[in-house]
Design a protein that fits this description.
48% strand; mainly beta; four-stranded antiparallel sheet; seven-stranded mixed sheet
């Protein structure tokens, strides 16, 4: 059974920071690119960031570029999303997901496995 479990969400004030973690079980981590996607109430799920299996390639949505950093520790089967300078529009449920290969990482339909999501709320 493949599982992705996110943690680290919460309530933060505008301008603040949070670090999300995603722990993967099983063989999924080997060879898989990992992504973070988010879904706000009433909106479609959107791509946030992705990182290749080796960690040498990363890709960000324009809306988070320069503020968010994705990283991974393959020894711990864990991927992270460091979010700085948070804005109210970053409020959403954040999902960790995994896919084989690096092509089309910005498309949610390309991902094979998903976590349950963690809520991030940015509000004063």
């Amino acid at each position: 059974q493949v599982q992705l479990v996110e943690s680290g969400g919460g309530l933060v004030r505008p301008g603040g920071s949070l670090r999300l973690s995603c722990a993967a079980s099983g063989r999924i981590f080997s060879g898989y690119a990992m992504g973070w996607l988010r879904q706000a109430p009433g909106k479609e799920r959107e791509f946030v960031a992705a990182i290749s299996w080796s960690g040498t390639s990363t890709y960000y949505a324009d809306s988070v570029k320069g503020r968010f950093t994705i990283s991974r520790d393959n020894a711990k089967n864990t991927v992270y999303l460091l979010m700085n300078s948070l804005k109210p529009e970053d409020t959403a449920v954040y999902y960790c997901a995994a896919k084989l290969g690096w092509a089309r990482v910005e498309l949610s339909v390309e991902y094979d496995y998903w976590g349950q999501g963690t809520q991030v709320t940015v509000s004063s």
